[in-house]
Amino acid sequence: MLKSPFKDSPFTPKISYILAALSIYDLEETKGEALWAYDPNSSKDREIIIKNYILDDLLYLSYRHRFILMSMLKDALDSTNFDFAKEFESDYDEHITIAWDETEIADPRGFFADIYRLANEVWRDDLHKASLEDQSTW
Fold it and tell me: Is the pTM of this model over 0.85?
């Protein structure tokens, strides 16, 4: 069983983990300002956001963890009923404020599809390596 990176418990990720790098709670004047320089609805800017913030932020995870996370994202993308807009909602009780809320993202599913596509380009070797392993031994 694959363990959580910081705890001795099973790794049970959520799709929301992918957007953790976009949380600007109490960082509006620094990280928020940097992120707001980009338009998440522009394909050029979105690629920068995904590569420089989202994918870089997830590098603390092992290749196995990232494989599980991307497999879960693929399953969500394959589901026509998954509500990607809710992933952009802030949760002030949990101290999570996403740089752009659900009303500012024109195509939330497309945003996550771009994350999946770019992760498979950037992490190609690591994801391939994990796919060749017997996941039941993790």
Answer: yes
